[in-house]
Amino acid sequence: MRSVRRALPLGILLLVLAVMWEAGTSFLNIPHYILPKLSDVLYSTWDNRAVLVKHLGATLGEALLGLAFSVIFGVVAAIGIEASGLAKQTLYPLLIASQSVPIIALSPIMVMWFGYDIWSKVAVVILFSFFPLAVNTADGFRSADPGIGELLRTMGAGKRQLFLKWKLPSALPGFFTGLKLAATFSIGGATLGEWLGGETGLGVYTKRASNMLRGEAVFSGVLLLSLTGVLMFAAAGLLGRMVLAKRGQQR
């Protein structure tokens, strides 16, 4: 019942927005290629469900593969920043500065380097997802309580034990915060990579539908992308809660 009560305001808001969307497009007589009726979008989603599932599978595969590489690269970069004072002074500011370059401007370069197959999409996903993982994990390492570190040193803990018993547990909340952001961004990265060149994926589907002025098909693809991003965020959050709860029980 508590879960239902917490979800009730969101459900009411979504219902109000749905009614406004459906009624507003009819009342204002908005052309379907600008803003289709919600009922037409839902009908298009159901009518083209087989094609959408195929394209969704391609986009999700690219996003998950890119996210996996981002986790590896982000954690390695965060460990390097924490372990080396030189890396902390050079690599960390470079990571921050890299975000001043619009990722959408770098995406065509990924296509030129990796071609139009899956790896160009994976590379774009990494561009979107690497930064929040690396920075949040590095900040998690820096948030470790120095008092616990001193206590472990007085008990004879070596570098490996300090990392596993002190630094790593302290970095887990930051890592999972970065993972939730990266999981959401990965869907946008995969879609952008598909827009730049590809044969399958929801990005390709929405681009083709837009070229044919099929507004209801465009919006059905966008709604699926949004829902997938929300589910990816929720899955990362659930994983984080499970790991942190298990860690709390072990303590």
Give an overview in words:
This protein has 251 residues and is an all-alpha fold. It has two domains: 1-30; 32-250, MetI-like fold, CATH 1.10.3720. Helices cover 86% and strands 0% of the residues. The protein contains ten helices and no strands. The protein has helices at residues 2-27, 38-47, 49-83, 85-98, 103-114, 118-142, 146-154, 159-196, 202-211, 215-250. Helix 3 packs antiparallel against helix 8 (159-196) and helix 8 (159-196) runs antiparallel to helix 10. The radius of gyration is 22 Å and the shape is globular. The two termini are 31 Å apart. The model has no long low-confidence stretch (mean pLDDT 86).
Keywords, please?
2 domains; 251 residues; MetI-like fold; mainly alpha; globular
| CATH top-level class of the largest domain | Mainly Alpha
Uncertain stretches? none
Q: Terminal Cα separation, in Å?
A: 31 Å
Shape: globular
The major pleated sheet works out as: none
Task: Return Rg in Å.
Answer: 22 Å
Number of H- or I-type helical stretches: 10
Helix share, percent: over 70%
SSE arrangement, N to C: HHHHHHHHHH
Query: Average pLDDT across residues?
Result: 86
List the helices and strands and how they pair.
Elements: H1 2-27, H2 38-47, H3 49-83, H4 85-98, H5 103-114, H6 118-142, H7 146-154, H8 159-196, H9 202-211, H10 215-250
Helix pairs in contact: 2-10, 3-4, 3-6, 3-8, 3-9, 5-6, 6-8, 7-8, 8-9, 8-10, 9-10
